[in-house]
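Build the 3D complex.
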Amino acid sequence: MISGQSELDNKIMLEQAKGVKQFLTFIMADEEYGVDILTVQEIRSWEEITVLPNAPDYVKGVINLRGTIVPILDLRLRFGLPSIEYGPLTVVIVVKVNFEQGSKIMGVVVDAVSDVYSIAEEDAKTVPNFTDSDNSEFVAGLVNVGEKMVALLDLKKTMKIKCTH
Amino acid sequence: MKRILAVDDSASMRQMVGFTLKKAGFDVTEAKDGSEALSIAKQQGFDAVISDVNMPIMDGITLIRELRTLPNYKFTPLLMLTTESGMDKKVEGKAAGATGWIVKPFNPEQLLAVIKKVIR
Amino acid sequence: MSIDLSQFFEVFFEESFEGLDAMEAELLNLVPGEEDLETINTIFRAAHSIKGGSGTFGFNSVSDFTHVLETLLDQIREGKRELTTEHVDLLLKSVDCLRALLSALQSEQEPDLEEANALRLKFEAILGLGQSEHDNPNSECADEQQAEVNTYQIDFKPYHHLFKTGNEPLYMISELAELGELETHVSHNEIPDITDLTADDCFLSWRFFLNTEKEERVIREIFEWVEDDCDLTITLCGGLFSEDDTAQGAEENNPDSKIEPASSAPINTQEVKKAVVSKAPPPATESTSIRVGIDKVDSLINMVGELVITQAMLTQLGEQEITEATIASLQEGLAQLAHNTRDLQENVMRIRMLPISFVFSRFPRLVRDISQKLNKQVELKLLGEQTELDKTVMEKISDPMVHLVRNSLDHGLETVDQRLAVGKDPVGIVTLNAFHQGGNIVIEIMDDGQGLNTTKIKEKAIANGLIALGDELSDDEINELIFMPGFSTADAVSDISGRGVGMDVVRRNIQSLNGSVEVSSATGIGSTFTIRLPLTLAILDGQLVKVAKHTYIIPLISIVESLQIDITKVSRVGKDLDVLRLRDEYIPILRLYNIFNHQGAIETLDKTLLVVVESDNQKIGLLVDDLLSQQQVVIKSLEANYQKVDGVSGATILGDGRVSLIIDISGLIKLSGLRKPGSQELIIESQANLEAS
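Done.
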């Protein structure tokens, strides 16, 4: 087993030591967002879901992930973007979010998965306050990758669900 | 193989007695009080009965008295486990038909030595 | 033969702790002067067993201490001594002391004997004993130093009835032979004519000459059991063959003679203990084992048996050629397999379930001690003690419950004077109640005290900066404040409930078990703390129902009946509540699609079905589109990765892999607004009754 897997691990560790993190990015409404790859558990296709009564609209429901009940959030709705019909490309990224009370496994529906980038922490810029949407609270930093700009998500804030009552 | 019925409400004592006797080559049946012992004794025959005195539901003295009236247990050694403070109990037990007694606390070797007095 | 006694230690500790629990419970039931014999007997037996076991297994500190306890109990039992409150208190303290001693021994530590010795002195004072009394008689060792060989003449003439005592002269003789050199003379002079001979009787007598280095006492012990059944004389004589070397030679040549006769063997328990400790297994880990009733194990074995049979049948079918008939039997077999598996699963889960009485049982003592300290009169009522819950949950719920009970006794209940002043019974009542509700176990801690003081709580909360001066809060909201971190209304931190642990910790501990705790209170009437805990690993019998395109599960246990609605019996109450008159009752109709906000459900009453459920003694009807199957479901937590959903107690995974939600009836009632906050009565009842009249 001294093969690709451990080499990759070594690479990740090396980069972490240098303050470099790998991010998985995905596309949503033509924008590219990134999440720390270490939080990603798996990527699944969209499937039939069980609706939770009286949940906020961005909480689509729960799925059975090998015996555990995992809630699924629609990131478009979470960001107040117009929702689109789910199609074959629609994917669910399952992430592990570390809340103060403990970690939770949750899924987010995004338009499509894009790429994996290595990004040095010092390259991430803080979000300017003058953005027109109030979604800046979900974004931990902005980073330029070539021509593109990627918004790095603050998962803890993004996945926090407000009580409806 | 000689069969012994061991009666005690304390599981650890019962296990200790049972284990010791089994290791010495006896076939041991355990009961947790006098009443259970009596019904077992009525169904099966035993070469000796060892019973604790203080037990719920039916005490050891009553058990011995009941057993002695059964034709199958007319000559069967019936031993009671008693404590050193129980001299009255020894007399009471004898009157009820007990063969003898083993004084608590005892260790496995002592138990076997006493058993040897009645069955071999 | 050597037997390692340490293998019995764990059982001994377990049963001793159980015995102590029983002692404690019975002691708390004792009213001096009115005690009944059976209670005393039970206490005596527990002490007696602990003493016997600890002596046998070499725990002398425990057996010595239990000895004085047992002596006192024996005297009370025999009616030689009157039971007093002082005795009960002392015995209760001894129970604690013994627990500590045994715990120390269990974890292989040196027990602290200070408390035990102090208590023992008190017992001895009561018993009027000197120091010498509690000397362990076992310590009197036979003097093995004495090596002088003597010859004894022993005349042994059993009475005729000897055989009927179960004794066997033959074995006694061989025992004698083990003591040294034995010469035996049998006398059969007494044997009657054959016509008078009875086979049951003993007509023989013996004269022995024994050449031994043992004392006369050792010889007498052989005949100890038949003392009253024979004539026995033992005399020391010059010796027929008293050459010293004969005896010693015999000893050397005959290894058997080293086997010491029972009653003379020195019981050097000190040595036993040492030997045992050195061989002792790794430290006992308390909660890794579970005691399971033999009936539960037996039923598991039965089920595994059935499973094996079904499996064999299926294997056989699989080997046959596939025809219509085999397919039918295959399906039958699979259904059987499903049935077996479900039963097995359910029963395996039940192994971990224990009645909550394990937790409840510690409260009588607690309440007794605290009420004495506070000088309040308290009666403790325990309800639903047989309600089962998972062992791990049980272990963790005990401390929060203790805190809540202390709180009720300290802050909730008034003193006798206060109670009399407001016209209440001087004896306050604290009730612990447990029951299952949906996938939860609900534990209520109720007192009939003064209720929470909302004014005082509010003042305190303002003082602590938890709320602002102008905040408008309902009583329920104010009561909620007591669970806020850093809140405490006790003016001075009391010994009873103010141990630096606040209600916030209680709530946090309960929440960490995925549970919740709420309080409801009425001034002057009392307060109720309600703990809800999930039965982790629990299985629930569920009725699957359809609401629009969604499948929900209603716990079968709460379903009273399911029916089609007779539209003529429905009347509208208030603005938008339909009520069905069912026999003599009015059943409010809850439209599940409304409460859960689902589109596309059938809305016309006569085309739907009504599932009548009962919760907290209230019946309500749930409107559903259709009834689906019934099945057992494994309860999964929604809170693990999400959060609490009102009206839903949990989720499960159906056979096809989909998730289905389990309805929480009492949560639903709350969600629907049918019940006034803090009230037990449904809003509907008063209104419906009004219309009926």
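The radius of gyration of chain B is 13 Å.
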